[in-house]
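Chain A, query sequence.
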Amino acid sequence: MSVREFCEKDYPTVLEIYSKSKLDELSFEKKAFTLLPLENDEKRMSALKESKIYVFDDGKLLEYGAIFESEIRALFVSPSARGKGIGRQILEHLLSQISGKANLFVVKSNKPAKALYKEYGFEVSDEFITEYNGESVCANKMVRIN
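Chain A, predicted structure.
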């Protein structure tokens, strides 16, 4: 089991992990959201393409994460792989690639993700309204000063 750099052959699996996981981060909201597949989401796809992407590979991709400069832009774990410490491994790898302050954005109501980030020294620094697939959602910016 290892974290490695993304390669083109990983692309279909990354799209699948995103599709299986994206709505989970919004599941704590009071309203329901409809999945907008990553390949159809111009804003998020553009941000991912300009990022450095890493995958967790144990013979089968289970997770991926992405960074751009000091920002963690993605961290998605396949539902079948959750609760096994894989998310922590990719988060630690992403943080090892960032020197100095790191930041990320998370849905405000996603308490499990925020609790994980807080364990790694992140604190909420801002709250704002963003959107997903045309629906507004409250989000937090979290910052970690290293």
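The chain is about 30% helix and 35% strand. The helical segments are 11-25, 42-49, 86-96, 111-119.
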